[in-house]
Structures are given as C-alpha cells and as structure tokens.
Prior knowledge:
Layout: H1 2-14, H2 29-37, H3 46-54, H4 60-74, E1 76-77, H5 79-91, H6 96-117, E2 119-120, H7 122-135, E3 140-147, E4 162-169, E5 172-176, H8 178-182, E6 183-186, E7 190-193, H9 204-207, E8 211-213, H10 222-226, H11 237-241
Parallel strand pairs: 1-2
Antiparallel strand pairs: 3-4, 3-8, 4-5, 6-7
Helix pairs in contact: 2-4, 3-7, 4-7
Amino acid sequence: MKNIFFYIAIFLINNTIAQVSDFKETDFTIADNTAMLHQGKSLENLPLLAHHLTHKLPTDVEKFRAIYTWVCRNIKGDASQDSKVIKKRKKLKNDSLAYIKWNNTYKKTAFKKLLKKKKTMCTGYAYLIKELCFLANIECKIINGYGRSTEANINQLELANHSWNVVKLNNKWYVCDATWSSGYLKNYSLFVPDYNDGYFLTDPVLFAQNHYPLEKKWLLDSRLIASKFVASPLVYGETFKHKIIAINPKKCK
Length: 253
C-alpha cells in the first residue's frame, strides 16, 4: 500500500509541469550567462541594456529569459514603497479617482528610485520587464490584480495589491512574476535576494493560487476563467520551485 501511494505522489508531481515545458528543448544556459555577464549594468540607458542582453540570442524565449533573469537578479524589493502604496490604497479604497491621481504623481518618484538605486516594488519590476521586452521587440503586458499571501486576500479578494507580466512567445501568452522570483522581504523590511525560477512561465493553474488578475482573461486557462474565485490554500515559494499543484484540499480553512 505504501508503494502505491508513493507512485501516485510521484505521478502527480511529474505531471504538474509549468508552461516553461513548452521550451524543454531550449537550453537557457547562454541566456542566463548573458544576464550574469551584464550584472550591475546601469538602467540609465535601457535601449543599450536591452541590446546587450538580447542581440546575440537567436530566439524570443531566450531573449526574454535573459531580460527576466537580469531584472530578478539586479533589482531589489523596496518595502517602504510597497507599504506606502498599500496604505494609500486602503485609505482611498472608496475614492478611486483620488487614488489614481495620487498614484500617477507617486509613480514619478518610484521610477526615479528604480533607475538610480535599482530598488522598487512590484509595479516597477513589471514596468522594467515590459520596457526591456518592448525594446527587444517582444510583446509583453503588465497585469494588475490580487496577490494572495498571509497578509492579504486570504479568504476573499479584498485589495488589488500586486502587478506581474504576461509575455507572448510563439503566439502564446505566458505568465511570470519577477517580483516574487527575485527574493523576499524579511520582517517586511529587509530584502533578501533569493532567485526562484518557479515564477518563470508558470503553469496558469499553479499561478492562480496566489495571483488573480483584475481581468479574468489573463488567468490564461479556460477552466479558471469560466469558474468563480475559490479561496484555495495558500502556497509558497517552494511549491513553485518544485512545480507542484496540490489536489486537495480545495479550499483554505
């Protein structure tokens, strides 16, 4: 009986393959090494950075990989910015026009900090990925929505608090989250670099367990789009690293 359960577990793990498996024949070594070769490069000239990261790579997925890896390994999370934006969202949750006005002004400050100090929050990560992709002629969008964590959106979707990207490769859309790939905040103040490849071209079913877009079409899975949001159990970085989609329980308790 133990052997039966063991083989079932192995089967489930091996069949929860992220969308990156569409490119299982692609060797990302050169793309990753290209990103490493340009470690610490300035953001003052984005066209030049995009050129350095992509011009020697033959396919769009390798170019995107170099861009994604570079951003994840060179940009730090900024807890103070993140906290400020979340507090303002909560304060102005019933006055969307006031929040948009404030946010448009604050973006200028945030982007200056990103360019000069390479520190940002999720919107900055998503913005930088999108801009570098644009310069490399790769279609990419910023997706806004709900990030589920121990701090927010546990039992229901209450606060839109997160941004990530979708990228079009070989005429197919893929999801990724450079913010959560890059590392984590210790005690909500100190950024700890800890690259997690599991958020790169992730399986939409796994991704949706802690990412829920404002526009449901960006769930990228017809079953998810057709169904209502379910507060599933919270999952963490190791789940993504090992590409595991839990079968049960279905709901968070």
